[in-house]
Specification:
This protein is α+β, with helices and mostly antiparallel strands and about 425 residues long. It contains 20 helices and 15 strands.
Length: about 425
Amino acid sequence: MSDADTVTASPVSVHDLDLPLVTPEMRELERSDSAKAYRSVAEQSWIARSPVGYSILHYDDVVAILRDKQWHNAVALLPTLMGITDPFFTDRPTSILAAEGEAHVRLRRLVAKAFSPREADRLRPFMRDVVNDLIDPVASTGRADIAVDICDPYPIPIICELLGAPREDWQLFSRWAEDVLRIFDGTAADELDVIKQAQTELNEYVVEMIERRRTEPRSDLITQLIAAEEQGDRLSSQELVTMVNAVIIGGTDTTRNQLSCAVGVFCDHPDQWALLAERPELAPQAVEEVMRYFGAIRGTGRFASEDIVYRDILFPKGTFVFPSLASANFDGGVIADGDAHTFDITREPVKGRMQMTFGSGIHYCLGASLARAELQEALPILAQRMPDLAADGRIEWKPTATAIFGAEHLPVTFSAVAGR
C-alpha cells in the first residue's frame, strides 16, 4: 500500500458547498408562512446558506453546535455586525451572556444557586397574585388586549420582587428593559441614542441598589449575588452590575413575549384552552409544548473560535452559523409520537430531547426555571378566568426583525366571569 493510499481526504470547506438558501425575504413573511419556508429548506438539508453565514436547521445539529464549546456566542459581536462603531456598545464589559471558557464557567458557578428551581418556586404565590391583579380590571368586560393589558406588565413586578426593587419603580424597569433590548433588533443602528440612554440610567440605578444592599442586606437576588462565593471567589462590582442587567433584560421581554405567543396559539386551539382550564395540572406540559410550537426566541448565533470540522465539513475560523431553534423544534425527533405540527398540551417531553427555545449547552438560559414558573402560573389562571377565548380581529405581531418575537396587540373576547 502506498503512502497516497493512507492519506485521509481533507474536509471540504463549507464555503465551497452547494447549499440551499435562507433568504431575508423568508423572515419578512407572515409567521406561519415563514415557518413553512424554513421547514421546506430543512427538508432539503440540515444546513443552508444565509446572508452572513449558515443556518442550522435540524435538531441534532443545532444541539451539537450549541454544546460544542469551540462555537462561541455571537451576542457580543452583534453591534459590529450591524455596523455600530460607538465604543459604548463595542467595548462593554463581558457579561455571562457573552463570556466563554473558564470565565463563563466561573460566573455560572457563582450564580447558579440564585437561579435554581427552588428560588423560582419561592415566587410562585407572588406570580399568581400579579396575574390575578392584571386580569381583575378586564374580567367583567369580556374583552381585552392581552398583549398590552396582561403580557407586557406581567414580568416586571416579578423581576422587581426578585431584585428587591420598590413598586414605584416598576414602570422604569419596564421601559429600560424594552429600550435596552432594541440592540438586538434589526433597527438598532437607528435607535442608538434611546438604547444608550436606557442603559446608562439602568446602570446607575443598579449601582445604587448594590451599594444599598452591601449595608442593608435583604432576602433578594442582589443580596444573594453579593454574598455568592466559592473557594474565596466573589463577583466584582462590575460583574454584579452586568449580572443584574442580564437578569432585568433577559427576564422581562422574553417572558412577556412568550406569554403573548402562547395566548396567540391558544386562540387557534380553543379545545386546548378549555382543557388547560379544566386540568391546570397540565401547565408544565403546556408550557413546554407552547415553547416548542411557537417560541418567542426563534434562533441564535455562534461563530467558529477556530477552524472546526463538523460532519466532515470545515468551518473556517470566524464562520458564523445561526442555529434555528424554531426549525429544530419541529424536527420529528422532538416528539415521542404524533405529528410535530399538531399542538397538544398533553404531550410529554421526550427525555433528552427537550424543546430548544431555552437553547442548549453552556449558554442554556440561566433564567429558565423562573420563566417556566411564570408561564406555568399565568396560563392556567388565564384559561380559567377567560373561558371561550377568541381573537377579536387580527393579531398585530411585532416586526420580523425583532429579536424576541411576540404580539404588539392581541385583542380577544371571552366569557366574562365575576370574581376570582
